[in-house]
Specification:
The chain has 235 residues and is an alpha/beta fold. It is built from seven helices and nine strands; from the N terminus they run E-H-E-E-E-H-E-H-E-H-E-H-E-E-H-H.
Length: 235
Amino acid sequence: MFRATVLTLFPEMFPGPLGLSLAGDALSRGIWTLEPRQIREHGLGRHRAVDDTPAGGGPGMVMRADVLAAAIDAAAPKDDPRPRLLMTPRGAPLTQARARALAQGPGAIILCARFEGVDERIIDARALEEMSVGDFVLSGGEIAALALIDACVRLIPGVMGEEASGVEESFEAGLLEYPHYTRPRDFEGRDIPEALLSGDHARIAKWRHEQALALTRARRPDLLAPQTGDAVRRR
């Protein structure tokens, strides 16, 4: 059972899109579970404060380590095996490989930061893994958490109708996915590539690989950098 616990100041943002389509159907069938928890329940004082001014000065506010520690401890006991993730633009990039590894595990505890971020000490004190969904800044970690959970849930057995759907797609083989076509055969003078209509499975596979490689070279050459040309050709 994949269990996602999300610590947030805006629990009403969940399940959001995760309650629809494949993820929503799987959620209703009990294939995975989602528990949004309000960080402010552990806030301090009459106003349930969760943040304070940054040490050393500067703009904005910083989420307090003591408040976040209380929220994390209430959501996950020490023996909880799930990784603890902090959504932050300075984190390690979320990859398809990491999503697949998470999907094969017991789930995740996901902390959604707001304001200028969190007190650095909570990261070490609660062994948080910093994770990013891209080189851009969002208003908070909730949208990033939705993306991460969706990337994981769709890979859980029984969520997608056809298991092969999760194998032949971008990043699974170190390449971007090849182009897709369907009827009509002619669309505004643009034909389906003849190779796809040949019925020759080897030819189709070769065409798809060549297209995937060309797209990757044009759009994401960084994906090819760690590989040798021979390694790419063997895929």
